[in-house]
Write a structure and sequence with these properties.
four-stranded antiparallel β-sheet, M1 Pyruvate Kinase, Domain 3, mainly beta, 21 strands
Length: 261
């Protein structure tokens, strides 16, 4: 069993960037979901309400993200400290604090979305909770910091459902080469080199998977179609959410050992 792909999403709800390796921190993959767009009321902006976000091209080169849209381009150094206004926002039930990244970024994204928006960078500690109420440090992801899916799981739904599905509908961080569908739902963790990640909970899916990442169009049949085989207790699941229990560097092609204890 090997680590097939690693994906990082520097700005929440924008397209991801595939990377060959990453340092796993307590908040997940380095730079993953460390920035977020908010509206004039301070509410988070995602593809659920703004599918056009899927059409911004993202490229990651070392510590710099490049964003392009219809001939416009802007770059963002992900590592540099930012000195700006502190803004309070919320990711579901969790309060978060971000730093306003500045006029040039706000102007770029406001033009794309045709409304006034602000790009913030997460600062401070944001905690999410496991089903047993244990607090876990996280990024600006909806929940726990690492979303894991297996190749066999995708093949299973592709072979058993009529709608077209690919990994980008599910926005995973780690894609593991597996032979058993939904193995990621039934282990207690995975060991990837010196790094161990622990199972937190299955990932409940929302209407965001209805967004076609290729053109931003909506297909409202995709979520109910997935529910035909992945509905459990009134929730539709695909992939599972994990959190690190030890840190280090992981790379595509690394051998993976499932943990069942």
């Amino acid at each position: 069993m090997v680590l097939d792909q690693i994906w990082v999403y520097p700005i929440k709800s924008l397209p991801g960037c595939r990377v060959q390796s990453t340092e796993v921190q307590w908040t997940g993959c380095t730079y993953d979901r460390s920035f977020m767009l908010i509206d004039s009321s301070g509410h988070k902006i995602t593809q659920r309400t703004h599918p056009m976000l899927s059409q911004i091209q993202m490229e990651l080169q070392n510590e710099t993200a490049y964003m392009r849209y219809q001939g416009q381009e802007i770059s963002l150094n992900l590592k540099n400290d930012i000195h700006g206004q502190l803004i309070k926002s919320q990711v579901w039930n969790d309060q978060v604090v971000g730093i306003d990244t500045g006029t040039q970024y706000n102007h770029f994204f406001s033009n794309v979305l045709n409304e006034n928006v602000t790009l913030i960078k997460k600062t401070g500690v944001r905690e999410n909770t496991l089903p047993n109420s244990q607090p876990i440090e996280s990024s600006l992801a909806d929940s726990l910091p690492l979303l894991v899916t297996g190749t066999a799981s995708l093949y299973h739904i592709q072979n058993n459902l009529q709608e077209d599905f690919n990994f980008m509908h599910f926005r995973p961080n780690l894609i593991i080469e597996t032979s058993d569908p939904f193995l990621e739902d039934h282990v207690t963790g995975f060991r990837i080199g010196s790094v161990e990640i622990q199972f937190g909970k299955q990932c409940g899916r929302c209407a965001m998977i209805n967004v076609n990442p290729e053109d931003g169009s909506l297909n409202k049949q995709r979520l109910p179609e997935l529910g035909k085989i992945r509905l459990e207790k009134n929730k539709i699941y695909f992939g599972s959410l994990y959190y690190p229990s030890s840190l280090g560097r992981i790379s595509e092609g690394d051998q993976i050992t499932p943990i069942f204890e």
